[in-house]
Amino acid sequence: MKKNNDRSFFKSLSYNSWLYNFVSSRLSNSKNLAFSSIITRIAIASISIGLAIIIVAFGILEGFRNTIHDKIFSFVGHIQVTQFNSGNSYEEKPISTNTPLYKDYKQILPNVETVQAFSIKPGIFKTADEVMGVLLKGVDKDYDLSKFSNNMIEGRFINFSRKRFSKELVISKKIANKLHLKVNDSVFVYFVQDPPRIQKLAIVGIYESGMEEFDEKFVISDLRLTQYLNQWGDTLVGGYEIFIKDFNQLDTVQKEVYERMEFDMQMQTTPRKYEEIFDWLILLDTNVAIFLWLILIVACFNMISIFLIMIMERVNMIGILKAIGASNFQIKSIFLVRGIRLVLRGMIIGNLVGLGVCALQYYFKIIPLDPENYYMNTVPIDWNWPVIINLNLIIFFLILFILLIPATFIGSIRPIKAIRFD
Predict the structure, then answer these.
(1) What's the per-residue H, E or C state across 72-85?
(2) Could you give the CA distance from residue 11 to residue 343 in angstroms, rounded to a whole number?
(3) Is 75 exposed, middle or buried (0-12, 13-18, 19+ CB in 10 A)?
(4) CA angle 183, 376, 116 (to 5 degrees)
(5) How far does the chain reach from its first CA to its final CA, in angstroms?
(6) Tens digits of residue pLDDT in 231-285
(7) Cα dihedral sign for 257, 259, 262, 266?
(8) More confident residue, 95 or 295
(9) pLDDT value at position 98?
(10) Which pLDDT does position 29 carry in this prediction?
(11) Host H or E run for residue 189
(12) Pairing mode, if any, of strands 197-207 and 168-172?
């Protein structure tokens, strides 16, 4: 008996679904109501335009955030650990590489990708016509070039094969332009110390990050050169740059690093060091979120208005359906199925348009930017597919929920008045 009841239930459910789809398709294919077809097009257009704008906005927002993060972290890592220094001088106090934080980070810091040694040495570039102060950032042969390679625009990186130290430099495009230097040129670098030192170094590469904080002063050199200038041993460096696997784990890793530092070390996170840039990104996130919510609210109000018009145009049909025994739930389901069809059509078009615009910008770099203000030459696009999928799901279910509001109007329609309605 129970099996028969279950079978009849599923047959009834299947029949009702077929009926809702059939009546809904007849409504959609009706050619008698020209105004209804215009309203349908407006509904599809409002959803598709809104979704396309949201997809493009999120693609650009993610692109901005990730591009700026990559540029900053390629220079300084996520966390810097140095010897404690109460002054603001660029002259460093050395720390040893014979510490667990540097040698055993893979065992004690599971969320850390790599730890790299570095050293900063102030110097003065002197050419025939110009003089300019710079900061030599010394890196060693284990430097992860993959993080920095996107910044290289000309030449190559430093060759660490020399036994003593490499006399090669990678300078920024800004420094090269100011001093009229190019790849394969040589430059005299003066170091103000006791005793003063002069080194003739070769320019082998030029980089451009778009970040003024780096391009205006940083020059990449061999770590052994800065050790030689500072008269340090092979195990003494200016500090460690810590790269973490997931930026969202920064607070966790910061606590772990703090617990494992030596008593005379200090730590600084990159978001704290370059606070103004990260605050700008947070402000950008807030502005985009407000803009997108406004678009979504307008689209929802449009759908409510359009759905009410569709119901008002079919008041006679609603009255007839009620007169022959159709329940409010069945009639609401018919209109909701039609609404879902419109939403899906609008979302398909919106995805095609939004992803198409993103693809054009991603591959052809159509929209340029001023690097002086935006840190990059073109509008960046990031393909964050989980975000795009979640956007589609949120918009679909939100609009579906919104459609339930005008659908309640069907319950207040009386068959006699509805049939006479004109």
Answers:
(1) HHHHHCCEEEEECC
(2) 28
(3) buried
(4) 65
(5) 49
(6) 999 999 999 999 999 999 999 999 999 999 998 899 999 999 999 989 988 888 8
(7) positive
(8) 95
(9) 94
(10) 53
(11) strand 186-191
(12) parallel
Q: Which pairs from 188-196 meet CB under 8 Å and 24+ separation?
A: 188/125, 188/126, 188/127, 189/123, 189/124, 189/125, 189/126, 189/134, 189/136, 190/123, 190/124, 190/126, 191/121, 191/122, 191/123, 191/124, 191/229, 192/122, 192/124, 193/229
Distance from C-alpha of 155 to C-alpha of 204, rounded to nearest angstrom: 6
140 close to 160: Cβ distance less than 8 angstroms: yes
> Phi-psi category of 166—alpha, beta or left, where left has phi over 0 and alpha has psi -120 to 50?
beta
Of the listed ranges 10-19, 26-35, 276-285, the one predicted with least confidence: 10-19
Cα 346 from Cα 352, distance rounded (Å): 10
- Return phi, psi of residue 421, to 5°: -65, 135
Q: Is the dihedral of CA 369, 280, 265, 256 positive or negative?
A: negative
Among 310, 393, 291, 334, residue whose Cα is nearest residue 44 = 310
Average pLDDT over residues 64-79: 91
Contact 307, 406 (CB under 8 A): yes
Q: Are 221 and 134 in contact (CB under 8 A)?
A: no
- CA neighbours within 13 Å on the CB side: how many for 228? 15
Nearest residue to 379 (alpha-carbon basis) of 393, 364, 400, 391: 364
Name the nearest CA neighbour of 257 among 273, 236, 240: 240
> Which one, of 70, 161, 163, 81, lies nearest residue 118 by Cα?
81
Per-residue pLDDT tens digits for 331-344: 787 778 888 888 89
Three-state DSSP at 314 gives coil
pLDDT more than 70, % of the chain: 88
Cα–Cα distance, 232 to 140 (Å, whole number): 14
